[in-house]
Each structure stands twice: as structure tokens, then as C-alpha cells.
Amino acid sequence: MNNGNSAPQFFVEDIRHNFAEMFQEAFIVLDADYKTQTEFFCASSAILKQREYVKPSFCKAVMEREALYPTGLANEYIQFAIPHTDAFHVEKPFVFVTRLKNNIPFMHMGTTDVPVQTKVIFMLGIKNPEKQVGLLSDIMKCFNDGVFVRTILSIQDRHEMVDYLKKQFGG
């Protein structure tokens, strides 16, 4: 029974995000040695395409979107990027997580001339655009947590990384 002092139970459950199922071990790459954004986008898109998570148009679409709407971000803990593109190019939802051996420059979100030396990339495949804001918000919260950042930078095993991320994102 709702006495007016708390949100109805259905509302409370609706506002909780659970994106754990979007993280998979196959889409975790640790200490990747990519030299450019293009190399990163082509390699990760090929993995996604092989597993039928994206359409053949995905790689070109995500690169074009990144050029128009950069996704690099920086805070006191880390510099990272969250590239994504239209749901049309995505077959199944995912978060493709890449920790780089050497940083790759991405432009800072909202600019075209401020580079961010990206260490971690969370490339998103959003099938349901209504969920994008919640996922981006959850990712931003995590990257603003020093413990989260230190943990993802120190994990050396893909299985351990996916378990950690699933717990952080609702699993």
C-alpha cells in the first residue's frame, strides 16, 4: 500500500537501469595496440559484424558520427570516449569495451579542436534509442568514480573485467 510517502513500487523499478546484459567477454579488449581511431573502429566493427551485432554499414556510420559529434571526455581520473551511431546500424545491443595500450586522440565532446588522449573506449550499440540517455548517464557516473577507473585500468583478465562491468551496470 502506498501511503503517499514513497514512490509506488512500479515507478521505483522503472527508474533502475540494468545494462549488464550489454557487456560480453567477446567484446572486451584489454591493452589494445591501435594507433588511430580508424584502426580501432575497423577492428572492433569487424568483431561485432562477425558475431552479427552490427550491419556492414556500422563502421563507416560510427566514424562519420564521431567526426561530426565527437565523444571524447576527460575528468580528474581518466580521458575516455563513448562513440556510438544510429540504431539503424545495430542488430543487437552491446557495449564494446577497449582499454588501450597507448592513448588515441579523440576530440572532446562539443568541440572540434580540443583533443582528448583516450585511454578507454566504451563503444555503444544502442538498439532502443530511449535507453541511450540512461546508459550514457550510468557510464558517466562510473567514470567519475575514482575506484571504478582504477579498477578497470588494473584488471588484466577479460572474464574478470566483464564480471566487474556487469556488476557495475546492474547485474
From TrEMBL:
InterPro entries: PTrfase/Anion_transptr, PTS_EIIA_type-2_dom, PTS_SugarTrans_NitroReg. It holds the Pfam family PTS_EIIA_2. Residues 21-168 form the PTS EIIA type-2 domain. It comes from the Bacteria. The keyword Heme does not apply. The keyword Signal does not apply. Keywords: Sugar transport, Transport. This is PTS sugar transporter subunit IIA.
